[in-house]
Fold each of these.
Amino acid sequence: MYQFRYLIVVTLATLIGACANTDYFAPTPAADPENAVVYLYRPAASNPGKKPLTTSYPEIMVDDRSVGLLKYRKHLRIELPAGSHKFVATGLTPEARWEPENREYTLRVEAGGVYYMRFRVEFNTDSMSLGSFRGQYIIHLHPVDESEAIYQIRETSA
């Protein structure tokens, strides 16, 4: 009897876990069909051990307007009209907690499109010395193909 109860509990736990799939991401289309959606995300660093700048975060400006703070393992959903837009990750605002220099990228979007941009922060292990992490980073703000982004963005939250 004990083995039967144990089997039921394990089966139910497995079924509940399968129903609550948190490893799935589906983009939300733009509310206005004339707009595009850009998902800007900051995945976990891929280096082993200590992760760089996990408590530091830039403010994201699009066309000189703030769209939010991009914290570690978070993403922002940004709806924009079709055209070219300048993205800037900056620490030069009162809300930002970011010391590295600004990173910029200009992205052209089309109406109805969904785009992905990654803000990647990694340790520059080639130039690091033992015990020195400060200032040894590789930081990129760039577009990412959807086929790659959907696997990375699902590890982030809004």
Note: Helices lie at 2-19, 146-153.
Amino acid sequence: RGITHSLFFAPLLGLVLALVGCSLWRAQTPGHWRFAKTWLFMTAMVLLHIWLDCITTYGTMIFVPFSHLRVRLNAVFIIDLFLTLPLLLAFWRWRDRWWRMLLALVWLFVYPLAGLSLNAWHTAQVEARLAAQGRDVRQVTVLPDAFAPFFWRVLYEEETPHGMLVHLQGLDALGRFRAEESVIPAASPRLLDALARQSVAARAFFDFALLPGTRPLPPSRR
């Protein structure tokens, strides 16, 4: 999810795919496209792929090489059946009704946007609930869980007399907390910076992580 997922690289990757799919624009192909149309179509498919990465919790760096900002909208789970199954159905029966493919394309935008709206609603509900409890929290992030939009996760930091803590807890479709809360100490920024200077892999991991925490090893593993 690096340079190949960049908005600036998309036209070049679309050009490569258009050349690979040369049978689409060859004069010998019945009903062939123009080369420009093939290039435009392939670039649109690359941009669609980038969109599908951006709506997940992993996200992708769409502004490389100018910025390594990871854009993640947290709208759908990384493998979302409710997003995928309608696409498979449309692909299976598209020859019977061509408009099914058009509906599938619309679904690729409508469903994530609905998930994005639910995420914003859950985030506002959690922030209001924690504020009503008088807790000093920051960086509240709601993530889609498996079988979202019915299940979500909330992640946030809290300032306590024992230091900064990272909380992780599940949410149901109505925004109510479910299961037990997981609490670990937040990782020290100085520690993260020191590890990032020692290892490229560690730096990439910390750029990817949302709220990294630390957990002491048990005595048997020290």
Note: The mean pLDDT is 92.
Amino acid sequence: MNIQLTDTWKEGLARLIRRRPFKGLLAWGVRLIVPRQRVGVALVTFNENEEVLLLRHVFHTASSWGLPGGWLNRNESPQDGLVRELGEETGRELIIGPPIQAAHEGPPSHIVMAYLGWLQPGPMRLNSEIIEARWFDLDRLPQPLWSFTESAISAGLSLKRLLADEPVAQ
């Protein structure tokens, strides 16, 4: 049996849900019922020779070299998380460009978003999670790399060339 609700009934329900205590109950219900997903962010950045910055991570077991980035905190925007992660890992600041790739990866199951960005001048200070930071020629990338990393680098290079190396803050 299909139930057809009139627009008037739907509008009334929507007004009711926007009021206390229903508004709070709805928010609580969403937190309780809607599945959660880990979200990571990654930075694709190039130097003047079109070499890409990769970091050798302590905690990456399958592929120790990867893009700068990490997990988002609860309620943190991807851009804020990327700025925070890059600052923590390298001590550097950046201009964030456009997103260049998103994918569902695993294990562990997560969504990862890569952004093109431009590092600001300054010294590189690696934290305890990072063993080494190095600029790599695109023909000499360390192996193995995750397929997401390789495709994000390729997408980032294409967009960088399209933008003619002009930082575009988002």
Note: Strands lie at 38-44, 52-57, 65-66, 69-71, 94-105, 110-119, 130-136.
